[in-house]
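Hey L., structure's done. Input below.
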Amino acid sequence: MNSPLNDKIYLDNNATTFMHKNVIKELLIWTNKGNASSSYADGVECKNKILEAKKYIADICKFNLDDFYIIFNSGASEGNAYIFRGVAESYFAIKKTIPNIITSAIEHKSIISCLKDLESLGKITATFIAPDKLGFIHPDDVEQNIKKETAIISVMSANNETGVINDILNIGRIAHKHNIPFHVDCTQSFGKSPLNPENIIDAFNFSFHKLHGPQFLGCLVIRKDFFKGYDLKPLIAGSQNDGLRGGTENTALIASAELAMKQVFNNRINKNELLLKKKLFIMDELAKHIPCKSLSDYWNEKLNKYHNSIEIVFISDSDPHRYLCNTLLLSVVKRTQPPICNSVMKKMLEEKNIIVSVGSACNTQSKSASHVVYAMGFDDLLKKGILRISLCDDTSFNNVKIFIVEFLTVIKFCIKDTCDLKSQK
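Output:
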């Protein structure tokens, strides 16, 4: 099964994934079971199920539950808000100084918008580290921007649009060298590789709907020493989640999420290798019909004023292991009039029952290109042709082959050229 959306080929898995039938069944089994805070039998069973899920997260991420809090919430966006609003208030209460928060310019909108809101209220100063031309955040750039009042550093493990995998370990080491807590949004990477906090990550979060679990459920993991040091207060008061996030726990969502995690992480290494093969297959097959190049080659050839009139630029370098195995961001670059339009290509693919994205799923209502594209300094040609293809474990080679054939048909229509595109090479 690739997608329950009327048998469409769904290639937008960085936006959301779909629950398998047995995960839905697990959710229904635990619906109406009771309140995990109650002492009757069903309530105790719910409490034990929640603890079981926490133990699984600790086990897969290789940390001790005695050292960390695990907070179930509505999703990664809530977890991000909890960290930044909590740190902003606590830092000022303790030091009577407006804190500085360092993050990257390619973070999820929930982080960037939250920090800009806090900054507009005069509660923080925010530093947004720019990526390089390929989208990577460099540890040295983070270190050079540390200030005396920097209260926390936050850098995503992998970007949801480009698939770039950041050097989290070295950024974390830099943060701790300066005695600054380090937070990681690992929403896109968690289903491919569980995050091991070791001794350098103080908080991280993710959403279960990115790994074939239910929507409206996320998880925030916080090192207890970090929590105690800042004396963080809950966004929602209550006794649940160790008093850190009030409200009756949704046992049904948590139980189904646990099952989804177990299925996703089973045989994960082989699954990742297969995803990478499918992604590289797409790239290789497209290159047989249309001139294709990496983003590095695009910039270099642009400087030398050499280019094809139509080409596909893969937003990556030559090493696929520096990117998420399931994520391919590309741009169809057309230098002759009329310009190409990614929205038209997306719509045409959808008419062929193929779902892709033109950028961040949280940004689709915006008429402008995503903030990630702007931060990476894309020119207008790159911006106009951007499409994101994101696979999942259920994406078959047959799905991929159909996509390639239909995508080539769409490109030929959009460039209004019936000639053999291979002749441009």
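The longest strand covers residues 327-334. Residues 340 and 415 are 7 Å apart (CA to CA).

-- N.
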